[in-house]
Please model this.
Amino acid sequence: MPQFRRLYIQGGTYFFTLVTYLRRPIMLVPTFRAALRSAVLEVKSAYPFVDLAWVLLPDHMHTVWRLPPEDCDFPKRIGLLKRKTSIQVASALQREDLLTRSRTKRHELTIWQRRYWERWIRDEEALRQIINYIHRNPVKHGLVDKVSEWPFSTFDRYVGAGYYTKDWNG
Model:
């Protein structure tokens, strides 16, 4: 198994991708969205961060977070986010028939993929490109024809701030 090395930068800005277990299309289920929203607020309250952008798709999500200047512990935040969401949706979305011996041994549910992807964002140009990528993602996956048609992202926040026009499509 490959050994992934994470880069820990205090006050860093990071791009994350979190995926559901077996790419189950459960993220747009209202119960899941409510649990995720609640978990984000709870984690933010205990371990602050600024969420700069995000998009929620049926089986994965992308988000960009900026950590406080003295902090680089994004694994704790991601772990808590996944755990809190899983606990809240387990009764509705847990699938016992998908459990493996490994998942049972580790006391894992069938909500999230075990790992996540992260990338440290070096500068404003890289940040701009990643935010554009995040907002274009529903079009890339064929879910909508125009970015503005997808309701599960920060696109409207960026339109309101004048960063994009409503008809922007990358």
Summary: Residues 41 and 81 are 9 Å apart (CA to CA). The chain has a mean pLDDT of 92. Strands lie at 13-19, 50-56, 60-66, 117-120. The radius of gyration is 16 Å.
